[in-house]
Write a structure and sequence with these properties.
Layout (H helix, E strand, L loop, with lengths): L1 E6 L29 E5 L5 E4 L5 H8 L6 E3 L5 H4 L6 H4 L6 E5 L1 H10 L1 H5 L8 E5 L5 E2 L2 E10 L2 E10 L2 E6 L7 H6 L5 E5 L12 H11 L3 E5 L7 H7 L4 E3 L5 E3 L1
Parallel strand pairs: 3-4, 4-5, 5-6, 10-11, 11-12, 12-13
Antiparallel strand pairs: 1-2, 1-14, 2-3, 7-8, 8-9, 9-10
Pfam families: Lactamase_B_2
Protein name: Phosphoribosyl 1,2-cyclic phosphodiesterase
Length: 255
């Protein structure tokens, strides 16, 4: 399996508009962060895209990705969905729409907001078929399991991807650790985990909470993501354990 970090930034990216780098060193290229997303690639080349962030076109061009075999969404917030139109070139040349999955409430909201993507319009074909996650156990030859996580007053979906005895976990946009999350990610090989900032936040994990989840599920390796402008790459490298690293756009980990 392979993990590709497409984007590692918070909803406003780093730098923020206005060239605001906060505490991030602008001369460190790994501090330049687009909106958060990952790609999971199986040993046979099957690819699952997780979320369709605002920067998706740029991310796919930067990583040379021109094909996917399925897409899953964590939740419906704008920074995770509003690049959905960039699925259209990925649909071209396919004999059928791209398979897509999300939790029930996310399905409802995506259909309400982007109906043309899932039903076609004005002669354009359906880009993506959208179904409930409870109906799927495998996408593109990769096992997919999930649970819901608290995201302030809302919920978001945690994912675990398994193939050939290897595993990748993904937990972004959560604000508390639950027993379901710990069970889902138990002994995962790589866990990609939200670590917005060092101070507590009402809807996101802060660094101490992220490290607590990594320890609780005994992840072999962890990658911090959804990092804001206070989270300088080099500084984080110096203060995290050896098996925990700050993520950056374009990071690839082969298992």
């Amino acid at each position: 399996m392979k993990l590709i970090v497409l984007g590692s930034g918070t909803s406003t990216g780093v730098p923020r508009i206005g060239n605001d780098w906060g505490e991030c060193d602008p001369d460190e290229p790994r501090n330049r962060r687009t909106r958060v997303a990952i790609m999971v690639e199986g040993g046979d080349g099957g690819r699952i895209l997780v979320d369709t962030p605002t920067d998706l076109r740029h991310q796919l061009l930067a990583t040379g990705i021109g094909r996917i075999d399925g897409v899953v969404w964590t939740h419906d917030h704008a920074d995770h969905t509003h690049g959905i139109d960039d699925l259209r070139p990925l649909r071209m040349g396919r004999g059928a729409p791209i398979p897509g999955y999300a939790a029930d409430e996310t399905v409802r909201r995506l259909r309400q907001r982007f109906g043309y993507v899932f039903a076609g319009q004005h002669g354009y074909p359906t880009i993506c078929n959208l179904d409930n996650l409870d109906r799927v156990r495998m996408v593109a030859g990769i096992g997919v399991s999930h649970c819901q996580m608290p995201h302030g007053p809302a919920q978001t979906t945690a994912f675990r991807f398994d193939q050939g005895g290897k595993s990748i976990g993904y937990a972004t946009d959560f604000s508390a650790i639950t027993g379901e999350m710990v069970a889902l990610f138990a002994r995962v090989d790589v866990l990609v985990v939200d670590a917005l900032r060092r101070q507590p936040h009402p809807t996101h994990a802060h660094l101490a909470m992220s490290l607590e989840l990594i320890e609780a599920c005994r992840a072999g390796r962890a990658v911090l993501t959804h990092l804001d402008k206070s989270m300088d790459y080099r500084t984080l490298c110096d203060e995290t354990p050896a098996h925990v690293e700050p993520g950056y756009d374009g990071l690839e980990i082969a298992l």
